[in-house]
From TrEMBL:
<dbReference type="GO" id="GO:0007264">
    <property type="term" value="P:small GTPase-mediated signal transduction"/>
</dbReference>
<dbReference type="InterPro" id="IPR027357">
    <property type="entry name" value="DOCKER_dom"/>
</dbReference>
<dbReference type="GO" id="GO:0005085">
    <property type="term" value="F:guanyl-nucleotide exchange factor activity"/>
</dbReference>
<dbReference type="GO" id="GO:0007520">
    <property type="term" value="P:myoblast fusion"/>
</dbReference>
<feature type="domain" description="DOCKER">
    <location>
        <begin position="1"/>
        <end position="138"/>
    </location>
</feature>
<comment type="similarity">
    <text>Belongs to the DOCK family.</text>
</comment>
<dbReference type="GO" id="GO:0005737">
    <property type="term" value="C:cytoplasm"/>
</dbReference>
<protein>
    <recommendedName>
        <fullName>DOCKER domain-containing protein</fullName>
    </recommendedName>
</protein>
<dbReference type="InterPro" id="IPR026791">
    <property type="entry name" value="DOCK"/>
</dbReference>
<dbReference type="InterPro" id="IPR043161">
    <property type="entry name" value="DOCK_C_lobe_A"/>
</dbReference>
<dbReference type="GO" id="GO:0016477">
    <property type="term" value="P:cell migration"/>
</dbReference>
<dbReference type="GO" id="GO:0031267">
    <property type="term" value="F:small GTPase binding"/>
</dbReference>
<dbReference type="GO" id="GO:0005886">
    <property type="term" value="C:plasma membrane"/>
</dbReference>
Amino acid sequence: MWEEAITLCKELAEQYENEIFDYELLSKRLEKQAKFYENIMTILRPKPDYFAVGYYGQGYPPFLKDKVFIHRGKEYERREDFQIHLMSQFPSAVRLNTTTMPGDDIRNSPHQIQCFTVQPVLEIPPRLKNKPVPDQII
């Protein structure tokens, strides 16, 4: 989350420079910010897997029932590990082994969880389009 850290560093730098006039802290914050930029360009970051998780059945609260959410896995987390963690949160649920939309029989059952890997669609921000931007930044 180096990009998020850079945003926070910029906010702090603004405060140190224009509100509290602490140039020593400003200097340290800018050094830290520079390190985050360097990390983005030099450190290999694993691409996480994404999982679609559907909650079907009468036993779920309304905010989950018959809804599908996309979850981002942790670094190097496999689908099997993600499912084990998910199923531990809902021990009475039955895991569905299909990617198709369940029928009414599944929706009227007590607890069913559907989990499968999905591929995200890359949307390049407009400010980066048609420019020679390194992949690490995109």
